[in-house]
Every structure is written in structure tokens, then in C-alpha cells.
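Q: For a teaching session next week I want to show students how multiple molecules come together into a single three-dimensional assembly. I've collected the sequence lines for a complex. Could you give me the predicted C-alpha cells for the whole thing so I can convert them for display?
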Amino acid sequence: MTFEEIYTTYWQRVFRLCMGYVNDPDWAKDICQETFIKVWEQLPKFRNEASVGTWVFRIASNNCLGQIEKAQRIPKGTLLKDVAEVPQQSIDKELDNLYKCISELAETDRIIISLELEDVKQAEIASIVGISEANVRVKIHRIKEKLTQKFNEYAQ
Amino acid sequence: MPNNTDLKALWNRQASPVPDSKEIYARANSYKKNQTITLVRMNVLLILTSVFIIWVVWTAKPQMLSTKIGTVMVIMAMVIHLAVYNRIIPLLKKVNDHTNINEYLQNLLKLKAKQRFLQTTMTNLYYVLLSSGMFLYMMEYTGRMKSAWSIVTYGLTFSWIVFSWFYFRRRAIKKHEQAINELIEKFEGLEKQLRSEP
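A: Of course. Below is the structure for the complete assembly, covering every listed component.
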């Protein structure tokens, strides 16, 4: 696969993953760009040990977790408060609620559920996260329960 | 109550226009340019510092060995400081992000621990080299002064060194450690999330 092909195939999917993690379109776009810069730089060294998708999602997920270092400079809670206060550009309230609910989950849960919603196979999620497939299955089940409950609370 | 399919359908409604890939190339090139500029600046600084110290030694023509040793120690302190903060620590920040999340977090934790150790050790080394270097350097010149003046000079220098050792050095180490410890704690928290029973 060429870089252009990877870029057009995975941009939306990586963007959604990043949105699931930070719930801020500009920040998500920034992480997404950083991810594709890394993909572009590392593509010549990519040896097909994993599928391209798994490889791209691994870089994106690690990049999301690495944001903690950047966020260290932003006071705790400011981001979510800002997001809540800024009028949402999106008119899709249901969609906004979904992202808001995901952003309230634990960091690694946000990544796992985003990959699941992105229709990534559970075996692949296990390989991206580095836990067993059985563990992924149970985690997804629990996260979905939690997410659905939160989502319904927001919907009321 | 939304089921699995509903959530997936809802999730997929999030669409963002795919930016032109040229943006990626432009940003990647700007990163590379910035890295080159930093590298050039660092090397120019090192060369200039060395040239300056050699010039000082050359023109002052010190007679005593202690002055020369002191000069070398001061240069070393500066070179180490520049090298550690501009080259080694940024290298430690580059963690392999092609691994799975679990390995990535473990690697990050190891690197952060190394960074903490390096920063503390190097800050201590920097202050020891700089203070001892200055002391040795001064010996020749204060030896030529009247004893009262040399006591005053040594007294002032010694007070300054004690102050910077107990204030600036401590503050620098505390600042670095606090930032790194916070990060380590957060990364450990993420690792725990993965290890916890679902």
C-alpha cells in the first residue's frame, strides 16, 4: 500500500479514534496529523509483521496516550469544561452525547471502545492493546454496558 | 436503549473532511527543518563556547596547573549541560510507538525513569564541575591579591556556590522531578487500567 492509499483509507477512521479519545475536533485532527506523519516516516521500514490497519491504529493509539505529556501543561478539567462551554458546531446532539460519554471513560477503555465501534476485529484490538483476546472481549462487554448507561442518562 | 448496532451507526455519523495530504508533507518537512535548526544551533554554541575558553586561556597565559584544570572543568560543565539537555534528553523522549499499547507504556515508564535519573545526576555533576572549576581557576589570581582581598573574594564565591547548590540546584531538580513523577504516575495508572481484571 502506498502512503496516499493508507491516508485516504484510514484518515476518517483514525480521526474518529482520536475524537473518541479527546472529544475535541481540533485536537483530534492534530493527533491524526501527527499519526500520519509517523506513518509516512516509518512506512519504508514497515515489514508487514502486522496488517497495515493494526500498525496504523497502534501508532494512533499510542499517540493518543502520549498526549498526557502535552496535556500536563493544561490544567486538569479545563479541556472538558471548555468543550462544554463552547457552542458545539455539530447539530447532531446524539453524536455529541456519544463522544461526551466516551470521553468520560478511562483512557484505555476509550481506545478499546473506539476500535470496537470502528469495527476492528477483537483479535486485532488485542494485538493493538497488548492484552489477550478473551480479556478484550470481556472488557468490551463491560465498557458497552457503562457507555450505554451513560448515554441513556444524557439522553434523558 | 441503544444497542450495539445503534452505537456503531451513530459513531460512523462522525465525518470530517479528509485534509489534503500535502498538509502532512508540509508539517513533516517543517518538523525536520526545526530539528536541523536546533542541531545547528547546538553545535554552533558548543564551538563558540570552546573557542571562547581557549581564547581566554591563550590570552591570560595562566602559569599554574590548577587554572588550566579549572578551565577544563568549567568547559566540561557547560558542554555536558548543553549535550544532556539538547541531545540526550530529547532522544529519551523518542519512544517506539509501533508496539502494542502495553509495551509502549512499559517502554515509556522505563524511559521516564532513566530521564529522571539522568536529569538529577547531570544537574549535580554540572554544579560540582562548575563550582570546583571556578575554585581552581581562581586560585592563581587570588594568590596574587592581598590576603584580605583574597579572603573576601573566596568568601563571596563560596557563599554564591553554597547558595546556588542549596537553592538553584535543589529547585532545578525538584522542578524536573515533579514534572516527571506526575507523568510516571499517570502512565502507571494507564498500565494498571490494562492489568486490571475486566
